[in-house]
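REQUEST ID: PR-0412
SUBMITTED BY: lab tech R.K.
PRIORITY: routine
TASK: structure prediction, single protein chain
INPUT:
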Amino acid sequence: MGRLHPWRGFLRRGAAPLLLALCSVAAAQKPVVQKPIVVVSFQPLYDVVARVAGEAAQVERAAPLGASPHTFDPTVRDIARLRGADLAVMAGLGADAWLEKYVRASGSRAQVLKLGERLTFARLRSGRGTDPHWWLDASLMAQAARVVGAQLA
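STATUS: complete
OUTPUT:
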């Protein structure tokens, strides 16, 4: 009969303890915690959400840097990216209505946070409705930061 390969004996004698040791090391490692994915409609809101979230969430822009929330038209790839979102943050009040539509179209189960609907606005003297460009007001952005923080907590 032919001679046994030198590794064969090791595999017979040492494979089981080695496998048990490797499994116990793998089991002792901490599980990887996946950060929630937060998609934000456009830059000014992205800046606030990213600062509030810090390292606790992966924050992404739906519209690329410099794109207008009024005219942005997402590509199929942009919509597919929305599918993995856990939270979608938008200005609301009609400024970026496309985001909610495309979150739903992507099949995502992301919660949609419309910040404009959660803020307290000062009454306008002219009697007109609320300006949908609320992100240009620092006090409203501060309110938005608190709303986002509460949502992420």
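NOTES: Residues 6-28 form the longest helix (23 residues).
REVIEWED BY: pending
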